[in-house]
Amino acid sequence: MDKIIRCITGDGSIIASAIDSSDIVAAAQQVHKLSPIATAALGRLLTGASLMGAQLKQKRAALTLRIKSDGELGIASATSDGNVRGFVQNPNCKTEYHSNGKLNVGKAVGKNGYLYVIRDYGTGQPYNGVVELVSGEIAEDITAYYANSEQIPTVCALGVLVAKDDGGAMMALDGFNVEVLEERPVHYYCTCSKQRVEQSFATLTDDQLRGLVNSKGKVEAICHYCNKHYLFDKKEIDNIIEKRKSKK
User: How far apart are the C-alpha atoms of 209 and 33, rounded to whole Å?
Assistant: First the structure.
């Protein structure tokens, strides 16, 4: 089971969080049928989002990370309480390597673009932060976000490995007296539902909604995060439109 560990050094000078996200990354790869480079990129973003989302204190709070750049992937992730979901626009992105044999995540993600951080506390307008991409390797970009947008000295390291490296997550604090503050299980978890899909129809006009009905008399909606399919028949669509009229 994946989990996040939060700890503090004995002198109180450093607060650190570490995560084993092996199951989260594996679930994302299986849901989206990701290529190796797409798995590494989305896996890093999901891992970073889980760590950042777990720091939110409000019960209804949620965090979204989105990268818009000149790369092929186009990736996004969202989290609440450390549980995450995510997607890439090009799950079959070609896998390329550096000369040292490591995955060239930066090229796939893109180096010319922006990392957007959206915090929604469930009590008003979301807080939006943005920073230019530093490398597209994601960890460096999250570090830059904290330094430039939050003015918080932060070091972030993320890696998606083929083999599990047990015990390596807290090596950065080797030599420090460390007190564990919290351990929290985290998962790849999608919050979609048929009701939420129906709520999203509110952005469409009646004619646009009717236009979605296919030749079989159904509307099919697919969740970007988990690939779950939701079907609405013509009668359900008509009922949605009628409910709108009754509220006017």
Answer: 30
Q: Which two tokens stand for residue 155?
A: 């070091």
Helices (H), 115-205: 139-145, 194-200
What is the model's pLDDT at position 246? 77
Question: For the stretch 213-222, what's the b/e string if a residue is b when 16 or more beta carbons lie within 10 angstroms of its beta carbon?
Answer: beeeeebebe
How many angstroms separate the CA atoms of 14 and 155, rounded?
A: 11
Residues of the chain under the 70 pLDDT cut: 161-169, 171-174, 248
Q: 23: closest CA among 83, 97, 103, 91?
A: 83
Residue 248 has what pLDDT? Answer: 64
CB 44 within 8 A of CB 136: no
Integer Cα distance of 170 and 14 in angstroms: 13
pLDDT in tens, 224-236: 999 999 999 999 9
What are the residues facing 184 on neighbouring strands? 4
CA-based angle 34:191:113, to the nearest 5?
50
3-class DSSP state for residue 77? strand
Token pair 């009628």: residue: 242
Nearest of 42, 4, 1 to residue 169 by alpha carbon = 4
Q: DSSP secondary-structure letter at 98?
A: -
| pLDDT computed for residue 168 by the predictor | 45
Query: Tokens 């290529």 identify what position?
Result: 35
pLDDT recorded at residue 171: 60
Q: Is the alpha carbon torsion for 109, 46, 155, 153 positive or negative?
A: positive
